[in-house]
Design a protein that fits this description.
This protein is α+β, with helices and mostly antiparallel strands. It has three helices and three strands, in the order βββααα.
């Protein structure tokens, strides 16, 4: 219980913000959500909406965009190079170089994104 920072309703779901992570139980029905929220309203009033859901959503969106950039762009570039220049994988040298380049590009993009987001914080 001491790890819970905030409890709130996020549209039709319940949102628990812990010290290290965010939990969104998906299988709860609306009446079960109300029972849980009523418990926290009665016993732990300091945790109800202590953190705005909009700020949490912005942080989650940032994380998903970063994952999209780091994973999708190298896959598209590596696949394109393999398909067009590597003769659809038949030319082993170009295929190997393009796949290693895609892995390296993913690593470089992740480092760049980490640096950019640290500067903004």
């Amino acid at each position: 219980m001491e790890d819970i920072v905030s409890v709130q309703r996020d549209r039709n779901n319940l949102l628990f913000v812990l010290k290290q992570e965010i939990i969104r139980p998906r299988e709860l029905k609306l009446d079960e959500i109300e029972i849980i929220l009523n418990y926290f309203r009665q016993n732990h009033t300091e945790t109800i909406a202590a953190i705005e859901a909009q700020g949490i959503r912005k942080e989650e969106d940032r994380l998903y965009r970063a994952k999209l950039i780091v994973i999708v762009i190298p896959c598209i570039l590596g696949g394109g190079v393999t398909y067009f220049l590597g003769d659809n994988g038949r030319n082993i040298g170009i295929t190997s170089i393009s796949l290693l380049g895609a892995i390296g590009l993913g690593f470089i993009l992740s480092k760049i994104i980490n640096l950019l987001y640290r500067r903004k914080s």
